[in-house]
Please model this.
Amino acid sequence: MFNTVLIANRGLIAANCVRAVKELGMKAIIAYDQEDAESAAVRNADAAYVLRPTPDYSRPYLDVNQIVDLASELKVDAVHPGYGFLAQNMEFAQALKDRGIAFIAPKSEGVFDFANKHVVKAYAARAGLPILPGSESFVEREWLFRFANAIQYPLVIKSVYGYGGVGMKVIHSEEELEAGFNEVRHLCDRHLKCSPDVFLEKYLPGAQHVEFPVLRDAKGVTIVLPEQECSVQRRFQKLVVETPSPRLSPQMRSRLESEIRVLVNRLEVFGFATVEFLIKDGHAYFLEINGYIQPSHTATTLLTGVDLVKEQINILSGGDLEIDPGLINRHGHVVGSFIYAEDPDADFAPSPGVVERLHLPFGEEVYVQSNIFSGAVVSPLYDSMVAKLMVRGLTRKEALKKLEIALREFFVEGVKTNIPLMRALISSEEYAKGDVTPTYLDRPEQRRHLVEQIKTAQEQEIAALVAALSLHRDGIEESPVLAGESNAADISAASRWMNRRRSTPQV
Amino acid sequence: MFNTVLIANRGLIAANCVRAVKELGMKAIIAYDQEDAESAAVRNADAAYVLRPTPDYSRPYLDVNQIVDLASELKVDAVHPGYGFLAQNMEFAQALKDRGIAFIAPKSEGVFDFANKHVVKAYAARAGLPILPGSESFVEREWLFRFANAIQYPLVIKSVYGYGGVGMKVIHSEEELEAGFNEVRHLCDRHLKCSPDVFLEKYLPGAQHVEFPVLRDAKGVTIVLPEQECSVQRRFQKLVVETPSPRLSPQMRSRLESEIRVLVNRLEVFGFATVEFLIKDGHAYFLEINGYIQPSHTATTLLTGVDLVKEQINILSGGDLEIDPGLINRHGHVVGSFIYAEDPDADFAPSPGVVERLHLPFGEEVYVQSNIFSGAVVSPLYDSMVAKLMVRGLTRKEALKKLEIALREFFVEGVKTNIPLMRALISSEEYAKGDVTPTYLDRPEQRRHLVEQIKTAQEQEIAALVAALSLHRDGIEESPVLAGESNAADISAASRWMNRRRSTPQV
Amino acid sequence: MNYTVRSGKTHSINIDRSTDFSAPFTIRVNDRDYSVAIRKTHSDGRIKSLLINNRVYPVEVQRRGDGFPSRIFLKGVPFDVNIESVESTRYKPDQPERSVSGDIHAALPGQVIKYFCGEGDTVEAGQPLLILEAMKMENEILAPKTGVVKRICVREGIIVAKDDLLMEIGDPE
Amino acid sequence: MNYTVRSGKTHSINIDRSTDFSAPFTIRVNDRDYSVAIRKTHSDGRIKSLLINNRVYPVEVQRRGDGFPSRIFLKGVPFDVNIESVESTRYKPDQPERSVSGDIHAALPGQVIKYFCGEGDTVEAGQPLLILEAMKMENEILAPKTGVVKRICVREGIIVAKDDLLMEIGDPE
Model:
């Protein structure tokens, strides 16, 4: 077992790692950016060390040298990278190894470079798993058009080390190809801090996205846990998670489970991993293996009772996977929604700021993880996820209703959130039927249409009443626009924030 | 099904009822005391009506006439009384019945006066369940000594309609008898608003307290859910709940389950009820049936996935009990702690006030229900429970460790709480062994001893450091004591708040 | 006072001039009366939470450039509103002249990562001026008009608040 | 400055007179150095949260009548402390004379349910004066000394805050 673990991450995952490390009787140390000084992870850690700002203003959680030096200096036994940031960074993994510090990420006897999506995909193909057509990995621009012509559109350009929805770009036609390639390479350099290698893969519009968490200890004891349906996304990040998947047949589930067992045994995976599939028209394609604990794993934990964060650390510290399969629950249904401080009406533009009031929903079978509180500052510098809201029901129908009511109770003032959109989505007929695919919320009209559905005629009247009352009583406020000038007006609605987008103050 | 339900209660239970009613597609109306205007139940209800103060300064939630009049005026179909207050009040039940309004409480074809502990106990005895020796019920003082002599000490004086730890008094010797009798009768009059009938029962020191929730619909379909171990109490109110009980053998569990089935079938119970037993030296005694949803039921819900609040309302509104037994989980282990705004160092004196800062624990398998928030006022007029903290583990050992860490993370500033005591209790060897009985925390020295156990030598040094630093830097604050006068000093520590206690400003 | 407000449909709303807002009051919307009470206000007196027909509504009012409410949030849910007419004219502001400002404000909080121009440079409308980074995303700010960079107000690496002035572009020389 | 503080055992604590509390500093306890930084203070400047050996400690200081710290809460856990000696005497307050006050203050918030006496009544030490009710419990307040009820300050039914003056008892006539 480890004595001391350094957690090099932030937000909910860092707080969850701090807990898990302490539950295992080890000492939890957190390395943090000053922006996160008020976070739960810093509050609850056994010791907290602030990271210096970096010279290029990139996030300190990506600063390999600084974190490795701190880990050495503090003589920790292991580093937990959480997800994102350095979780799949080979340079970081190697630097820790050189100093004799364990890296809490899955290992494979079969593949050294386990985080490389392209290498693992090739391995899966050799193990007999169906895969989507794709190219070799490459760096030079000259291969781009050649491979794209062979695969044909639509296709995806993927960084071999991408994660968290960053480092992927869907290309619909040749015109978009070069710009997409440059964008992915920029992201590798700036946000992923990884090598510029990419590969191309056939894009499957409307496919369902399903993931299976897997634990496998040093002795080869393996547990494949119930799958997560992650088919509602924005910018490849999950908005909703369900377990079990409402669209997976028992036959398909058991086939995928045995394929997973074949694969992880061949690769001799040691630790925790998530095996992802795309499913369309009854065909399942192996997509990738991720080696980190994702936000959606809380759904599997709530369904089964297995604390994946803790088990991950336990087995990678040399512990046995001692879970009695008889204690794992596989009944009932869990649905969860991720709450982001963002404005879905303005292309999901981030909405950082101060949380003025916060009322978290609570109640029977309503479960929340939140790192905001009244007075908390949502930093503009980081991912905008502020909470996970999960509910459990005996049936899917019960769970959806619970989530809908919980979303009505969830109140945040001071920053905009996706709560109304999530409420509208969950209560929609399309969602209830299970007809939703990862691009469902891409179109602004679709999002607007969904939110309109939840407004009653009476609420429209009340909104009109409040508008009139507010003008009547509060009068006209001083305009934020300078006399005779207009570009500050509605600028936030006009400004589009995408992975990389251009915007101009509206004239 | 009902269209509209009036909830006549406050706090967590009222909020849970509002949710459940809305989940069932009914309209939830809350009747509230002005003190509770900022509560979750008021915020989330479809409509909220404030109750007038009562002429005798008793709580408006006990004002039968006012609540019945409001229910009539609003033409609601049913009233949910929550627990405590009017949940078992026969006058209230009758007044609602007279107006054709349903009362969400269990009914029995066998016993009209189902809330009467003494009547139900006699019924259980006739159904063959073992009971503790006790007296007839009586009102006149003259019977008191006669019955007490027959039963012998220690014994308990119980109001036939008591609940929530109020209306019971343990009597160790004849000297205490008359004062105890008067106290129970005063409580019937002032706090329970019920008839003064009492009965005596043999007191079983060190017995274990176990409760089984039971659902039974109009057609007689019955589900007996896993038991709750409620053996840690203060003033007969639960501080900790576990499910399943760590001390119940599978044989005993299945025997009690069949006894419960016999009893509820004989009584033809319709609705939701909790059947309580005392267990000592391998013998189980039927104690009572309660007809309300208790705070501890959240533990059973977390274990099994069955939302008891919702099922209760569903079956009493005429719905069928449609739960598929295959979906009910009975594996794993849940432990929960009730968090009170009170000072265990001062005889559990209530500690009302403004919550200045609040950080709720969160994490994998950590579940919180809380009706406080940053800026919330904990009213001095009501029960001091401010949160329920539940955790689930695959094993009891895992669950206890999770709860201990969660209690370390739970931070409240502005009011004192029992959090440090709960943390000390849960991490103690005695608790891990399951050696704790309802009187375990009665002795102040025991509580103090427990809390001392969790302090490390280093923390003692740090406390000393903080004391010196605070004197050095912040200096001496203006004394709250007027010059030459002393009785304000330490008055709060000296003042003892019990069900009824005398205190004098210390001289 | 009569208001005509579009929110979905068009609604006719009457608020009595002599209404005492410190006690519960009634507002007529179309043919229906709503009972209204102000539960909470912000420190500057603006409405924060209302009780309408005995239901609690936390409200937030977003206003246009001319100060008229444009969007109402009822418990976080946004409703687009447009006050189409007011019986009295005392609320009618002058229409501001629409000319293009050269002041570049931060549309949202973020960190200034890089400038593509310096003070004194001539820039053309549409040309990238700087990159603002927030929450894993980059926002490339383009010049709103052709002109000369008069002033760069914030250094690279600085974290700015919403509406902070980042740079000024003057008229071309 | 040297402090001797009992908290469990007796500890010897040294705080340098010239310490700058705005930056991290060191305090020696017995033979060990602790690195300390003040993270947060209350609006009146008192310590609210500290970083000690890189660990966050929300702290609350409870003081005795003479202003000396008597109890330290470290993240809510109470530690009894007693400052047994201070090298300098500047903190030594005069011992207040101990006489019995006739002012009855509310020990905790609650509602005044009933008085057992009226203004002008003579009461004896130990006699019940009033009932204060809080959180389902009743507190019967007894007279701290024999005397005459000079004033009843709060009506029955009123909800009082901690330390509110409820009544005054003057010396016997």
Notes: Chain A touches chain C through 75 residues (CB under 8 Å). Chain A has four domains: 4-103, 133-202, 208-453, 457-503.
